[in-house]
Amino acid sequence: MDFIERVESPEDLKALTPEETVAYCDALREFLIDSVSRTGGHLGSNLGVVELTVALHRVYDFRRDRLVLDVSHQVYPHKVITGRRHRFPTLRQTDGLSGFMHRGESPYDTFTSGHAGMAVSVAAGMALADHMRGIRDRRAVALVGDAAVGAGATFEALNHAGQGEAPLLVILNDNQWSIARTVGAMRKYLNRVRTLPAYREGKKELLESLDLLPLIGESLSRWVGSMKDAVANYLSPGQFFRELGWTYFGPESGHDVLRLETLLRDLQRVEGPVLLHVVTEKGRGYETPGDDAAHAVSPRQVPRPATAAALPPQISWSNAFGRTVADLMEGDPRIVAVTAAMPGGTGLLPVASRFPERVVDVGICEQHGVGLAAGMAESGLKPIAAIYSTFLQRGYDQVFQEVALQQLPVVLAMDRAGIVGGDGVTHQGVYDIAFLRTIPGIVLMAPADPPELDAMLRYAVAQPTPTAVRFPRGSVPDRPLPGNDRRLRHGRGVRVREGSDLVLFAYGSMVRTALEAAEILAGKGIEATVFNARFARPLDTQAIDRFVEGFDLMLTLEEHAASGGFGSAVLEHLATRDPTARGVGARGAGARNVAACVVRVLGVPDRFIPHGEARDWLARLHLDAQGIAVRAEREWKALRERDATPSSVEDPES
Predict the structure, then answer these.
(1) Domain identity same for 20 and 134
(2) Distance, C-alpha 77 to centroid of its chain
(3) Which residues pair with 443 in a beta bridge?
(4) Which of the following is catalytic: 394, 437, 512, 592?
(5) In a domain, 520, yes or no
């Protein structure tokens, strides 16, 4: 029987002989390459931890012991071992297997992961709770990549937990990568540690030389002793972690499964916080890992139909962003870009090849990245901080304190704003409008098409105060939407379709959807005005006032949480108006009461949205063109029926 089929649970894995365990690791790696190449997903990091994951499951029982994976890009071997192999054809798909560790998917998934820097804190909390409660027969294990070790939250956790007594094992998976190459001084330190044999030889020779020095008196003897201690501390691998209070072991090969198993069993007897440093190869076994060590692969491509050649040229939003940034840098030497370990994902790799000194990768440190941009702005540069919407949440305090409070001209470029698809619940970019629009002085924009993104970025770098531009994941035609080619004006939107029955007041990516919904409505005899808001702050209040004075129904549309988002901002403005204000009807019908206009907010409901195809979730949330058209038609017909029903209440002004 194939080794991959022999293991349906950790108990099956523990029953293998040592020789069979080695063979199983090979089979598991082959399975991952074949399966993930079909579905797409995070391949490279998973290939690098096959032996490590197998060894962990042979030593621990993670139904009782707790395993916390930082980010959990490396969770696939864990999922296969814990009985989820048969679900891999559904990986990252709607209603399928999550691509991350997901609490509730399996009793072996202790904690939902997706952002870096959390594992040591969470595992330390689990270990400390057990210590306080007198539970001594289980251990918490945190598996952390070398890039995540550079995150500020990891440093905080190492600093605190290292001074405690709770039994905690942190495994540092050192593969020299995050999504891009690992950056920073910690990378250099770990590089030194990896050269352990050379350091051991150098340390041995130097200490032997010190022993040969003639000792003249007690003071020189003490000096030699101190010098030997200093040399030992400097050259000893892992000294940094020892100084923080951790018992350090390593570096060890992360691909010797039998050695790892023996070492993990031995470490169970060590009291207090332990850090095991293992060196792995990201993308191990994959023939063509590429520039990112096969961090993520796309599904195998299906041949395009012959009609596809007639489709207009498309561009990803990230590439459109990078194109404009490169052009801006060409014309202004003060413009720089800052990214947090995502030069590829944010479209900045081509920019960095042209302007290597002006694209700064700070690693997985969004807080530092935003603060760094603030310092650059204070010193006369024009920084663009390119950070995914979901990751900017991690730098919120810096946006408030270092950028907005100082009123510094930092541009926040928020990629992946909206429903992101396979990455799922931890990566949905549906909260940025809400957490940014309450900050005084900040300008919020969202483009409906790539040319509008270009215009907004050019506008943003010219502002003397903070601005933020959100744009979604995916690709769209590289041309303006119909009617959307008018000049950008501060705090003003643009009407892109005329209609006399209702208004679709759309923000960002939803403008395209609103136009599609309007065509569906037109087929039912309902004519909708479509308005591209362009700004969430400042709002185009003149347009809002005109619409509520001229129409009976307005729907706000956004690919964002309905609570606190763009539609909420519209309602807040309307709440400040005089409810008895009078205006002129859309069809010149004379004076009308503004309060008669019904305003509905369409957005992501108050719930966490799982992984899956973005189009599937937009349809389920009724935020696709069909869903919006159905809601608009229902609301419009209800108003017609209301107006057709004689009122039993006498008008006091009649």
Answers:
(1) yes
(2) 22
(3) 467
(4) 394
(5) yes
Number of structural domains, the chain?
3
How does 288-316 read in b/e, with b if 16+ C-beta sit within 10 Å?
ebeebbbbbbeeeeeeeeeeeeeeeeebb
User: Does residue 67 have a pLDDT over 90?
Assistant: yes
- What are the strands of the beta sheet with 553-561, ordered from one edge? 494-497, 528-532, 502-506, 553-561, 598-604
User: What pLDDT digit, counting tens, does each position of 506-537 carry?
Assistant: 999 999 999 999 999 999 999 999 999 999 99
Residue 307 domain-assigned (yes or no): no
Q: Which of 51, 252, 261, 366 is catalytic?
A: 366
Q: Is 90 exceeded by the pLDDT of residue 181?
A: no
Q: Residue 139: its pLDDT value, please?
A: 93
**CA-to-CA distance for 557 and 496, rounded, in angstroms?**
15
Question: Which distant-in-sequence residues (6+ apart) come within 8 Å of 124 by Cβ?
Answer: 140, 142, 157, 160, 161, 164, 166, 168, 273
108 class by beta-carbon count within 10 Å (0-12 exposed, 13-18 middle, 19+ buried): buried
Q: Give the per-residue pLDDT at 224.
A: 46
CA–CA dist 287, 268 (Å, integer): 36
Looking at the structure, tell me whether residues 333 and 251 fall in a common domain: no
279, 284, 289, 292: CA torsion to nearest 10: -30
**CA trace torsion 31, 34, 35, 41 (10° rounding):** 110
Answer yes or no: pTM beyond 0.85. Answer: no
In whole angstroms, what is the distance from residue 266 CA to residue 256 CA?
16
393 exposure class (CB count in 10 Å sphere: 0-12, 13-18, 19+): middle
Q: What is the average pLDDT value for the chain, to the nearest integer?
A: 86
Tokens (6 digits) for 606: 């108050």
DSSP state of 89: G
User: Which 3-state string (H, E, C) describes 376-403?
Assistant: HHHCCCEEEEECCHHHHHHHHHHHHHHH
Shared domain for 572 and 609, answered yes or no, is yes
End-to-end, the C-alpha distance of the chain in Å comes to 88
Average pLDDT of the residues in 69-89: 92
pLDDT the model gives residue 160: 87
Query: Given the structure tokens 């650059």, which residue do they identify?
Result: 376
Q: How far apart are CA 639 and CA 167, in angstroms?
A: 65
Find residue 361's DSSP bridge partners: 339
Pairwise CA distance, residues 589 & 423, whole Å: 50
Q: Is residue 285 part of a domain?
A: no
Beta bridge partners of 360: 338
Q: Tell me, what amino acid is at 456?
A: M
For the ranges 193-207, 296-310, 331-345, the lowest mean pLDDT is seen at 193-207
Q: What is the pLDDT of residue 652?
A: 45
The SS3 assignment for 111 reads coil
Residue 190 lies in a domain: yes
The runs of H, that is alpha helices, within 40-93 are: 44-48, 50-59, 76-79
- Judgement on whether residues 176 and 88 belong to the same structural domain of the protein: yes
The structure tokens 């598991």 sit at 28
394 as an active site residue: the answer is yes
What CATH code is carried by the domain that includes residue 143? 3.40.50.970
Alpha helices in 115-267 (DSSP H): 119-133, 146-149, 152-161, 185-194, 196-211, 217-235, 239-243, 257-267
The reply to whether 254 and 320 lie within a common domain is no
Q: Is 366 a catalytic residue?
A: yes
Residues 105 and 149 grouped into a single domain:
yes
Confidence of residue 177 (pLDDT cuts 50, 70, 90): low
Q: What is the extent of the structural domain holding 514?
A: 494-644
In this structure, the answer to whether residues 20 and 135 fall within a common structural domain is: yes
Q: What is the DSSP letter of 370?
A: H
